[in-house]
Amino acid sequence: MIWATRIGRIGGAPYLDIETLANETGGELLRDKPENLNTTFQTLMDHLRSRYNLAFVSSNKKRDGSMRKLKIDMTPTLQKKGKLVVKARRSHVAPRQ
Question: CA-CA distances (angstroms) from residue 22 to 7, 36, 54, 83?
Fold first, then answer.
């Protein structure tokens, strides 16, 4: 599979690796050796337990199906309080009528 992906990439086929996909969608990629899976799964569980979901209503009322950028900023006070990590998608598609 890796070989086929590399050949396709050389040939100019569209390519998106799993790390890029995770970063673009606000996901997370955990890698480790098979013998460390217990630790990796525990890390995953810890991250899921400490996750928050945010929602918003766009001020742009156009229902045109366009791609719109998203950006989440934290106040400096929150940034200084420890290991606060924000993972979010970088864009969304506006609904159509």
Answer: 23, 21, 18, 20
